Amino acid sequence: MSGWREDELEKALLEAKARIESMVALHRDRSSQEQLITVVDNAYDVVLETAGGLVKEARTSIDIIHARRPSRMDRFQRRSDQVERGLLYGAQEGVTIRLLTTPTLLDDDFVREQLGRERPVAIRVAHMPPLQALIVDDSVALVVAESAAGRRTSVIRVAELLHSLRMLFESIWKDAFRAGERFVFGDRTRAAFARRILRYLQAGVTDEVAARELTVSVRTYRRYVADIMSQLGANSRFQAGVRAAELGLLPPTPGAEPNGRG
């Protein structure tokens, strides 16, 4: 992602956080019946319980921005990340889940877990300034934002702010790097080459034709196919195609049940 793009994202994130702070102050003194923003105790257990409750209430979608600031306690916080990821498995069947995180916070074990799931969490990676947000059904969000005044955790139901968070999420998601590519193939060049092979397999192209298109020998092509199958944990070419689609490396085959919006 270019430096210009990262500057634009940072500006958007900072603007979103400033609006959240402003709206929290505006709604702080309203009665509970009118309150559209609820300030949550920053104690970890309280935040975790609040997030877990929202995940269980989700009916259609859960979108997550996970971009906290690294610290000296990162090794211990990564253990907490695993607990937080576990909350997602409490979502109801049929709820689509997308996770945006940073390269530093990407959990390869969690990415690996998605390979065997019928409805995997779609995971993408981007460089982002610190912000943590859980957006549920586009109707409520849990936001943890850092500011000069310290950390503030809020449950937000303000339509205007939810729309801003949604637009922010979509703008980053669109250009973010698919975690499955990084996990399975290592870098963009190898991922692009592997996607070409997967497309040939999906289209039923013969090994001879595919090898000629890629300007490699049939033997080399078949070695690439075997390596891709191994990386995806697939026992057949068909299964490799299914798992590639689940990871977002290929579009799902026509008539297949969608696994999510990402």
- Give the N-terminus to C-terminus distance in angstroms: 19 Å
Q: How is the biggest beta sheet arranged?
A: 8 strands, mixed
In the predicted model, the low-confidence regions spanning at least 5 consecutive residues are: 254-262
Assign an overall shape.
elongated
Order of helices and strands: HEHEHEHEEEEHEHHHHH
Class inferred from helices and paired strands: alpha+beta
How many separate helices? 10
Number of strands: 8
Account of the protein in words:
The structure is a single chain. The chain has 262 residues and is of the alpha+beta class. The chain is 51% helix and 17% strand. It has 10 helices and 8 strands. An 8-stranded mixed sheet has the order 1-7-6-5-2-3-4-8, sandwiched between helices. The longest helix has 25 residues. It is elongated, with a radius of gyration of 21 Å. This is LuxR family transcriptional regulator.
